[in-house]
Amino acid sequence: MTFDANSLLHAAQQVAGGQQYPKGALYLVATPIGNLADITLRAVQALALADVVACEDTRVTGQFLRHLGMDKKLVPLHQHNEVSGAQALVRQMQDGARVAYVSDAGTPAVSDPGAHLVAAAQSAGLPVVPLPGASSVVTAVSVAGDTQAQGFRFIGFLPSKGAQRSAALRDIATQPYSLVLFEAPHRIGALAKELHEALPLGRVTVCRELTKQFEEIATVPIRELGAWVAENGHRQRGEFVLVVHAQPVAEDEAVLTPPQTELFKHLLQHFPVKQAAGLVSDATGHPRKALYDMALAWKQERDHEHDD
């Protein structure tokens, strides 16, 4: 698909031209995750003004910019050279260049490279300007309809190593949040099996090829995910975003966030178990008995480790 580039650039100038685009700054430009029409006018304007466009893959970005009627100096910056390449871009910004950074799709520095470049620019005292745009994470969460969730957590790709992967899957089974996972097509079948073992009664929203021509979205019981994938050969192609629905918390249970857990353990170092549980209950709304039992379980686990 191609745009009328002249009309697009004119529209960007009309709508977004009044924004501030300082020189000597880094612009993080979110790009479409599949559908080129999802580009924002502000992103077009920032790219048009950029002196340099750093990118994850020059071939992908070069084709993308040609659709927009642009011919820019491209600098490759990916996971293998980001740390070393960031300093050269910082020097260009210090000389007054506007540097735009784009990943192949979506928002830089989320699951794609970009964080090292941002940190380098900030350390040098340079402005970093984020431009919002298409996000597979937010897109998937919005269509999941997970009414039980207390917010969502972005996980991305699960660890590939056995012990770390097993621990991450066990953690999934206890979360009161929607959990957003990424998976490659050649591993989606294995992930479906692992999720079924970890969460046999759970639900999942599976999004394949989000925003693209053959986009497919389904919410199914996790036990049926493997069959859903195998039902059609096309479902084993493309990129996957999965939203594992939150696990409902029983009235007599408590699931703490990591900061709440850290606070509870800190209080236990200074207060009796009953008092610490009461303080955390007042702060979080979780049942006191559940928190009391949780603290006793931690104590037993700690005592067992010391015995070993």
Task: Describe the SSE topology.
Elements: H1 5-16, E1 25-29, H2 41-49, E2 52-55, H3 58-67, E3 74-76, H4 82-94, E4 98-102, H5 115-123, E5 128-131, H6 136-144, E6 152-156, H7 162-172, E7 178-183, H8 188-198, E8 203-208, E9 216-221, H9 225-230, E10 240-244, H10 258-268, H11 273-284, H12 288-307
Would you kindly provide a written description of the structure presented here, covering whatever features stand out?
By secondary structure, the protein is of the alpha/beta class. The protein is 43% helix and 16% strand. The chain contains twelve helices and ten strands. A five-stranded parallel sheet has the order 3-2-4-1-5, sandwiched between helices. Helix 1 crosses helix 2, helix 4 packs across helix 5 and helix 11 packs across helix 12. The radius of gyration is 24 Å and the shape is globular. The protein starts with a helix and ends with a helix. The mean pLDDT is 91.
